[in-house]
């Protein structure tokens, strides 16, 4: 399918010469030579080890990142920036001939500004550490996702991660006020703005958010904090069809306490409710959608459980939902989230995951068209849909009896053709990386791709930053 781009920097240096140059510039404390690199630095999430990088650099400062890139620019040596390696588009692994630059040692909270409600963090800081620091200072951080313990702030910014609170606080882009990045030639671009308003010329930080390490290496960020949320209240509802899901969403989004609104199509709920050991499903997986709703309030003295219960009673009376279960313990709430996270799906043979977006109102029709297109080609396919409905994001899990590269490509094309026909996006929140590179044109116009190439050429003329990814 995709191959390493031949127009990228050559990477034709003698690997030993690269190692020696890195060791001479940075020292053995920062550089691990190829043979000694632990396989976790060249294994994509949940995958077997791939290509061994020429070297691993683990900087301790912005200056170390700058010196590494300045040297790589001189040597035309390709570099793969790496965070927590939880990305789902294989963007953080080497394809052959690169060095890997892991940000794991450049971690930590630098400061919290309570008056401005901001936190300044280093790129290698795990997301969960930022959430914990925010809570300790009396705030909430706006982004949450399942990989919170391992993914890094730099990685979540580089992929513009979304997650389960996007309907309340927006995606990662909406959390970033300021950013520092190191450019391909080693220049440190410090744009550590701390204000909500700053219209002094181009907003340069946007270049790096969501660019998956292809335009610069993110080193530090100033992030927004939100008022502290009280204990969440969680419920699962049974809803007749997608139109009813939409009516329920319409009702719920008017309530300021809503944090998450996650829909599971009938096939998904049926599967996870019968294949997740140790979890008590709130209702049997018959026909109908399951919707997980979470409320949390920042109003002092507010009670999210009471508000949610009252809302559900209203919705039952109005006939918007057929059944509802309000979690009365942390265990019940966790079980509901475990079902929604759908780990049971990962056990399906030859599973291929998709992460697409369309306007919320069109997701029901999309799922029907997509499943019909898949079944026309593979009648016995297992195919499930679930997602963050409020932000138009649906995940699709497809399991075929057998799978090779040609079938995987045909499967991708079948799904992305429907996305393209309905004017959606082939990547809602996981990015393009390597996996979706061949399909970028399903979502972006020729003019958009040409401008992306122009930006890439301007910022990284030798194509040493994450070659073979995105473009
Ligand atoms: C269980 C699980 C649940 C998830 N749930 C969600 C979800 O709900 N929503 C969602 O959006 N995503 C989700 N993800 C995927 C998500 O994209 C990643 O978890 C996260 O955003 C990537 O961070 P990372 O530090 O692991 O980056 P990596 O995987 O290491 O890298 C990802 C990309 O960013 C680049 N990169 C990393 N660090 C830097 C840096 N400092 N500067 C420049 N480029 C960099 C890499 O080159 C690569 O292209 C989930 C993943 C898992 C495993």
From TrEMBL:
Gene Ontology BP terms: respiratory electron transport chain
FAD-binding PCMH-type domain boundaries: 49-228
Key words of the record: FAD, Flavoprotein, Oxidoreductase
PROSITE patterns to which the protein is assigned, alphabetical: FAD_PCMH
Keyword Nucleotide-binding: no
GO molecular-function terms, A-Z: FAD binding; oxidoreductase activity
Requisite cofactors: FAD
Entry keyword Oxidoreductase: yes
Similarity section: Belongs to the FAD-binding oxidoreductase/transferase type 4 family.
PANTHER family attached to this UniProt entry: D-2-HYDROXYGLUTARATE DEHYDROGENASE, MITOCHONDRIAL
UniProt name for this protein: FAD linked oxidase domain-containing protein
Organism: Caballeronia hypogeia
